[in-house]
Amino acid sequence: MAGSSDLDKYDGLGLAELVRDKEISAAELLEATIARAETLNPALNAIVTRLYDEARATIAAGLPSGPFTGVPYLLKDLGTLYKGAPNSFGSTFFDGFVADHDSELTVRLKRAGLVIFGKTNTPEMGLAPSTEPRRWGATKNPWNLAHSAGGSSGGAAAAVAAGILPMAHATDGGGSIRIPASCCGLVGLKPTRARNPMGPDASEGWGGAAVGHAVTRSVRDSAALLDATSGPDVGDPYWAPPPARPFLAEVGRDPGRLRIALTTSSFNGHAVHPECAEAARAAAKLCETLGHAVEEASPAFNAEGLGNASRVIIAANVRAALEARARALGRAVAEGDVERVTWRWAVAADEFRSWDYARSMGVVHGVGRQVARFFTTYDVLLSPTMGQPPYPLGILDMSSTDDAAYLDAVLASIGFTSVFNSTGNPAISLPLAWSSGGLPLGVQFAGRFGDEATLFRLGAQLESTQPWAHRRPSLALSA
């Protein structure tokens, strides 16, 4: 049997191979993972719902044969439902909500052989680039417990970075996979719009901006997991373009000589920390040594107009979700039910008319066309993932009364990420740099619509050239 102390050295596919070769049983792997979670989570506050008995019962009932059979997995406590489990959306307003069915994504994760044993922390309704909800308390960055693990998939990223498990479910509506991946030193792919299913409860998230996938340690896990979950569900309103071959087959495949554009200027005009800009420039130099052509360029679009349109779309979706919950409770939603930032989003919806939503979707789609034209010249756009290193906890607390500091930190966090939610393009954050303070700094690579393949090829090439899997926070090493 593989030693439990060595299990955190394997990625998800590696653990699945151990189970398949009977070097460890699925039950033994689960218990070792639970033990690690119970040791590390008190310091991190990454896991907020334990589903240990449910996971044990899943194994006892017999697991399907899939690419990740027997590998433990965590779901984010936002949106994606697991039958019989609570789903709080990071909010006290949703206390008592228990799913009576699985989301389609959950069905596919189970079919892949994954063993879901808990749910991870998220800011209220996924509305912040840090995970500090009133409902559960702050998730801490394993590299420095005084700093944010990012958001909104901060619990997932902290759990993976600390070595509890090699990959975990995450979602992204403005950077919520890539930002925590950047903060915690992980691989974070936001897939193409509609690559993974949102149903049966949602046709799309935030007007098509939101999509689910994962944070992982390795590029190949991200690819294999996307193979297991992607593709349209019955009745989906639109699909992502089908891939030419399995995504895992792209890992290790020669990317060719790519045309890479480099920008270190954020799309929303926010100032960029010199270390984040240097991380992107260093990645560009690395790409040049690998034979790629790199030049400074960036798509041109009306960033202010896009920001205003996104505000309308998000406010409408937040208000709709709160009103649906209020109807289920049989009462009106009140200011005290939610955190300060959430309430501001909810009341902002009153400022807009129905035609503002239609106009805003037109703006978003127009920007998507402009960005698509940019990618007829370039294969990849390289940038920092975030405009600042991971923030100290408290700055992005959604109950904060320091509006100026909060807004400044949000804009710095999403300045490079959110545009690709609006356009639907895939984008991946890779852990290629570190701050002078010892915190991870992600570098983002965005591709043309539907072209995760190029990102997986390039990502695997960079992973092989400048490996990151050996780096572990001291919190993980001491467990």
How would you explain this protein's 3D organization?
- An eight-stranded mixed sheet has the order 6-8-7-12-13-11-9-10, sandwiched between helices. A three-stranded mixed sheet has the order 1-3-2. A two-stranded antiparallel ribbon has the order 4-5.
- 38% of the residues lie in helices and 14% in strands.
- The protein has a single domain (4-477), classed as Amidase signature (AS) domain (Amidase signature (AS) enzymes, Alpha-Beta Complex), CATH 3.90.1300.10.
- Helix 2 (26-44) runs antiparallel to helix 3 (52-61).
- It is of the alpha+beta class.
Keywords:
14% strand, 15 helices, three-stranded mixed sheet, globular, 13 strands, single chain, 479 residues, Amidase signature (AS) enzymes, eight-stranded mixed sheet, alpha+beta
Integer count of domains: 1
CATH architecture descriptor: Alpha-Beta Complex
Strand content: 5-15%
Q: For the CA atoms, what is the radius of gyration?
A: 21 Å
User: Shape, please?
Assistant: globular
The strand count comes to 13
Name of the top-level CATH class: Alpha Beta
Secondary-structure element sequence?
HHEHEHEEEHEHEEHEHEHHHEHHEEHH
CATH superfamily: Amidase signature (AS) domain
Work out the helicity level.
Answer: 25-40%
Output the number of helix runs.
15
Unreliable spans are none
End-to-end Cα distance:
20 Å
Mean pLDDT: 97
- What class do helices, strands and sheet pairing give? alpha+beta
What's the CATH topology label? Amidase signature (AS) enzymes
- Please state how the strands of the largest beta sheet are arranged side by side: 6-8-7-12-13-11-9-10
Largest sheet: 8 strands, mixed
